[in-house]
Amino acid sequence: MLVVPRRVVAVGLVVLLLGGGIASLPVAATADHGAVTDADNGTAAGVGENCTYRVDTAPNQSDPTVETVQSSADTTEANGSTVRTRSADVHRRQPRGKGGDIASTAASMETETATSGATQTGDGDVIRQTQTYARVPEQPGEVAVTLTYEVPDRVVDLEAHVPAAATVTETDGFERVNGSVYEWDETSGPATISYRINPNQTIQKSGPEGADGRYLSVDTGEWALLTRSLTPTRWRYTGQDPVKYNRTLRTAGPGAAGEEIVYLGDVATFEESAHNQTFTLAVPERATMTASPISVLDSMANASNALRVGDRDEQVFVVAAPSGAVNWGVEGYQIGDADMWVQSRQSLDTANNVWLHEYVHSRQAYETTAETRWTVEGWATYYAAVLTLEQNRIGFDEFRAQLAAGEQPVYSDVTLADRSSWTNDANYWKGALVAGRTDVHIRSATGRNQTLQRVFQSLNGYRDPVTQSQLLTEIEAVSGPSVRDATATETETTATVAMWNKTTHQRLFGAIPARIGYSLPPVDRADAYRADSLYRSDAPVGGSEPIRLAANETLAVNAVVENAGGEAGMYNLTLAVNETVVATKQGQIEPGVRTEVELTHTFTEPGRYVVSVDGDTATVIVSEPAAASVTDVAVSPREVRQGDRVDVTATVVNDNDIPGTATAEFRRNDVVFAEQRLYLSPQATTTVTRTVTLDEPGTVSLSAGDGRTTTTVDVVVSTETAAPTSTPTPTEMSTDRQTTAEEGDGFTALMTGLAVLLAALIARQRGS
């Protein structure tokens, strides 16, 4: 990240020479570790602390100050009327608490265009400037800008300055004076200046938020992410009441705009309001988020509540810059009051939480001297880590490792109050550790009744840059002379600073809270994802991605819930489909426990879906069920008597990778006598049997089919009458073959008579 302070500093001033009697107007710039190149778009060029860049601009809050307004001495014209001179947009930011006759701002979002800017809230007339940004697809690396001025009647003249390297393409109601200065010709109706800029800015960066590339803003031809043009404006007016100045940013076509940052291209916007702040997150179509948009907004809203340091801007505007699309020079970039972008693949679950780091910068309203400059990055790094710990997104070990980096020997010769001694981004690493140690000292000295936040809040009330003496005075006022002395030693000398342990943290910050995390099981665990439907029951469907289901199947997921914190806590587990929550479960989980909780959702419509649990995702493809097929028919018996019953068996096969269905139709001489709807799991085979009575003699065609193919078998029916079809009695069962049963009874009587006759003959023969 790269920081440019909110007030003009004495280092590295860039001077804009304004025509028409306006004094030279400085644009803030500092020179720390790298230079910003901004030759074409007129953005305040400068460099700041390592990798944090924040050029300061108009506040977006109830404070009416939006931009710097410089007033010249009143003059009297020949006719006796009093004429006053004012100017605006000569710096990126006017410090808090300073005056300035500017209308306050209110951001809004539209479907096809984006607008963010000022609305009149005070008395008097208002000069309304609208900056409209548009892509120039045929010229990648160029963005078209149109300045539109609506000028009230009391304004007697007005001068507008466009960026020095801009190419002016058209004017209406303005005449060029010299260089990049244009004078209003006092015509009625809106006056415009159209020009083109090269939005590409680069940086030579360092610091923990540094990235591998160099870009701070860019136009790719397909989309653009840039900061607005600085357009110094001077006007003279009559009357006692001031004529105010209102600036609005818009996009021509799809996009999103804050107070300072503009994104041009297809984008989705998400919004959350909490603690008197409205957070707007713009997610470009080109961006792939690691954390869900909802979780990013929730995290910032939680940080807003946790940071009781004042300076809450009404509007916070964040763009998820597409990671990997260009070679970004930083991981995050904060500009103005509360505009920022963060690379879309940045995680929330890390001690180096860039989302919160940039948000903390938006809460730093105070200006610094060289001695206190370390607090800008040191405090932001510390609070990003401690807020992430308090949000249960990291454990104490990761938090400790982040701050303990400031103990490294490379910082043994660093004095934070002496910028010339900084090496290896000492203001980030040693600065964060000293910030944390100061917080520990204050909590210990006050019995946990006061914290570093009280000092932070006091500094935000300063009008002038905070000196080392003032910083120490505020610390003493909160916690006493001993803490002042300790902080003086840790910032004004090379004294070694040590990280505190978990026991001390629990004593001073409270017990390590329940840190409950949620995740999806690995997709290659087949049984962790199961389907339930008419086709299959609790069947494993994991193993590979995407998971394939048929419409109206219910997916059951064994989501993982883990408490890595120090106390028991309640979990609130949610399953989202395409970022819409579809299932929730709550419960309590003890510290150190990891468990699985089943969540389910029924997919009624075909499509491609992304299921997610706390940022973990898996892809599910839902299709219409496959068409199963009747592949074979068996008939038994094949030869029967008139009136006999025959079994017809159809074999049904689903050889697809998704569930399938078929309606098996059974026909006798092409007339349906039975049908059965079948539901089959993938790669499954089943059979279904139906019985039919054949009453007519001759050859009968029996078949089964699925509506596409039919298999037929012929059966021969003889004219011999079949046995009755009523349920047989036990006697009938034993005489199943009726003819055989009758012959058996007569044969028994005959044999008995023959036996008697034979016995008489034998007896007679013996007697003779």
From TrEMBL:
Residues 103-119, 720-733 have a biased composition (Low complexity). It comes from Haloarcula vallismortis ATCC 29715. Keywords: Aminopeptidase, Hydrolase, Protease. It comes from the Archaea. The keyword Protease applies. This is Glycyl aminopeptidase. Residues 55-123, 720-739 are annotated as: Disordered. Residues 58-85 have a biased composition (Polar residues). GO terms for molecular function: aminopeptidase activity.
